[in-house]
Amino acid sequence: MLCPVCKKEMVDVEHDRIELDYCVKCRGVWFDANELELLLDKYNLQDCDLTFSKLKNKTSEDIAEKKQKCPVCKKTMGKIKIGDSSQTIIDICVNGDGLWFDGGEVVQLIRHASKDIQQESNAEQQVINFLGEVFRI
After folding, report:
1. What's the CA gap between 107 and 118, in Å, rounded?
2. Under DSSP, is residue 74 helix (H, G, I), strand (E, B) or coil?
3. Which domain holds residue 60?
4. 2 located within any domain
């Protein structure tokens, strides 16, 4: 699969039933539609408002950031603002194929998710550790 940003071949990274596509050049990550839920479920963050099914209806037309094409269906993806003050912007396939995160945006999403559900566990750090294992960061 080609990276939607730099058009280089991405590598498949699999860990604990979650298979992601990772661009070693720009550090972007592609989640197929169900993979985000698998990651959130793994760390008991499934009650947050950042599941794929909830995100797909939140696209915004007023975001000036360059639009990317979905690496699966090749259609122009929508943009979604997540988070509070930082307003992280992620890309979502309008056909439901998945989500694109530029380098570092997955960690921002998880931080937002763990704040949403206000749980006492260390889920945020567990996900960051998971991503560190997967991507060797």
Report:
1. 17
2. coil
3. 32-135
4. no
Tens digit of pLDDT at every position of the chain (137 positions)? 999 999 999 999 887 778 889 999 998 999 998 888 887 777 776 666 667 777 777 888 778 889 999 999 999 999 988 766 557 889 999 999 999 999 888 777 766 665 654 444 565 556 556 665 565 54
Residue given tokens 């930082």 in the structure block: 86
* Alpha helices (runs of H) in the chain, residue ranges in sequence order: 33-42, 52-55, 105-117, 123-135
**Domain contains 21:** no
% helix, strand, coil for the chain, step of 5? 30, 25, 45
Are 19 and 35 spatial neighbours (Cβ–Cβ below 8 Å)? Answer: yes
What domain count does the chain have? 1
* CB neighbours of residue 46 within 10 Å: 15
87 located within any domain? yes
Report the C-alpha gap between 24 and 27 in whole angstroms: 5
Residue 90 placed within a domain: yes
